[in-house]
Amino acid sequence: MDFKQKWNFISDIYYPPMNFTDACGEPMRESSIATVPCSSACAIICEASYIGGQFAGYNYIRGCIGKIARYGFNNLTIYKMGAERRAICHRVARSQLFRGHAYMEDQVTICICYGDRCNSNRAARSGCCSRVCTQFKNLMVLYLIVFFRLNQ
Q: What InterPro entries does this protein map onto (predicted)?
């Protein structure tokens, strides 16, 4: 299921993107990914996608920090991340990141940077999900080691 098909489930959280494309995880193709200049910080939100309980890749949402979330971000969370001072990626509970969604406890990764179009595809792949994937792989290796030791 691509991101556009999932839109009905998350449209109460995010403003609609300029275009729906699976190219956000691929090398930047200017013709298929619209860009917008940001006068404030740029952001990338990287969230795991699950279908039937099975991991199905990542959804990427990129844009100006003030034009992504319908109800805005929790400014205290952004401040605690240190994002007002430097470019940073951080994994947080969705309920801590977004205003008005206290019931959502799943984790998302948000990367914030300063500079026009600094949230390029390269930043999405290297900053957000690559770190999350590495942490997930490390956790799985640890789990497998413990599992096999307990079953010996």
A: Ly-6-related
The answer to whether the beta carbons of residues 110 and 88 sit under 8 Å apart is no
SS3 1: coil
- 108-142 pLDDT per residue, tens: 888 888 765 565 545 444 544 444 445 444 555 55
Give 41-96 pLDDT, tens digit per residue.
Answer: 788 888 887 878 888 778 788 888 888 888 888 777 777 776 566 677 888 888 88
DSSP secondary structure, 35-95, as one string? ----SS-EEEEEEEEEETTEEEEEEEEEEEGGGTBTT-B-HHHHHHHTTTTS-EEEEEEHH
Give residue 127's identity as a one-letter amino acid code: G
Report whether 81 contacts 43 (CB < 8 A).
no
Rounded to whole angstroms, how far apart are CA atoms 92 and 34?
Answer: 27
Contact 112, 37 (CB under 8 A): no
- The pTM assigned to this predicted structure is 0.65
Dihedrals phi, psi of 134, to nearest 5 degrees: -60, -45
